[in-house]
Design a protein that fits this description.
The chain is about 55% helix and about 15% strand. The chain is built from twelve helices and eight strands. It is globular, with a radius of gyration of 26 Å. By secondary structure, it is of the alpha/beta class.
């Protein structure tokens, strides 16, 4: 009996210690899981079923290698929408911009005016149809698989995904539809009765204008920007990236890379050829090719002069 009396408390004590050990172990495991999740957010982000979250993707050099309007310009040049001499002029302006890293206001204004002169008098439906063809010819093979996977992750989580670009909204809409995305925000050219007037509605969707477009869309859609994500390669999109709770720098230029590191934003780089990336030139292209191409896109015909 004495032996039993001695054993019983010990068994109870051992059981209590076992419970304590088990609870401590479970707590440690829970904390460990939380720490891992905190350091690798992608494991739990985007959040499935969060209908107040969405994702906003810049287009040029974020979703697509190069500038969408460059590839569109190639298609228009092929279809004789503008002449070689105009391409050469804008190629030089674009080369200067690429190397200097500064937008010349006169160059930008002239490019803008020329871009509008391309579409003036054309029907919106015509440009949309041409855009479908040009996507197949020049754009489809230039989509970054890594960025496409990020967009798909948001779609798979039940979230809406929008392109946000300075490219014409007609081009952006074609690309968004082909990628299975929700839609696109882009620069809007004025049209009357389905015919372009040669004027813009407001300004190009660039820099702060992108942030305002995202803010307006979020309000209309009932989104919580703190739960949304944005992706871009350019420091010009810092206003848009700063709006959301989950900013990502994708194939970033040097200014955005530095800013992202200072604020501990997440970075992804799907390029090869780091030397080219450092000066903001797509890795597989030389200055002449990049300049000529981007120029074709923003631009450029004054065939009626």
């Amino acid at each position: 009996m004495a032996a039993l009396g001695w054993l019983t408390p010990r068994r109870r004590s051992a059981t209590a210690r076992s419970v304590l050990a088990g609870e401590a172990s479970a707590e440690a495991a829970r904390k460990s899981t939380q720490e891992v999740a905190g350091t690798t957010e992608e494991a739990q982000f985007p959040v499935h079923g969060d209908d107040r979250a969405a994702a906003f993707f810049d287009l040029d050099n974020t979703v697509m290698q190069g500038a969408a309007i460059f590839h569109f310009g190639r298609g228009l040049y092929k279809r004789k929408f503008f002449e070689t001499r105009e391409l050469a002029k804008f190629a030089w302006q674009q080369a200067w911009f690429r190397l200097a890293g500064v937008e010349d206001p006169e160059h930008m204004q002239e490019a803008r005016d020329s871009a509008l002169s391309i579409v003036q008098g054309h029907r919106v439906a015509e440009l949309q149809s041409i855009g479908e063809e040009i996507y197949d010819e020049y754009m489809a093979e230039r989509i970054w698989p890594g960025t496409r996977a990020l967009a798909q992750a948001h779609l798979d989580a039940g979230q809406k995904v929008w392109l946000v670009t300075a490219a014409p909204v007609e081009i952006a809409t074609v690309i968004a539809r082909r990628l299975g995305l929700t839609g696109a925000l882009g620069t809007v050219a004025e049209s009357v009765d389905g015919v372009y007037t040669g004027k813009l509605v407001g300004e190009p969707l660039h820099g702060p204008a992108k942030a305002e477009a995202v803010r307006a869309l979020a309000a209309a859609e009932g989104l919580d920007l703190g739960r949304c994500a944005a992706y871009s390669d350019s420091h010009n999109d810092i206003p848009m990236l700063s709006l959301v709770g989950h900013p990502y720098a994708i194939n970033p230029d040097s200014k955005l890379r530095r800013h992202a590191r200072e604020l501990d934003w997440r970075l992804r780089d799907y390029r090869t050829g780091r030397k080219a990336a450092k000066v903001g030139i797509p890795a597989a292209a030389g200055v002449g090719a990049v300049a000529g191409g981007t120029a074709a896109a923003i631009a450029l015909h004054r065939r009626r002069r």
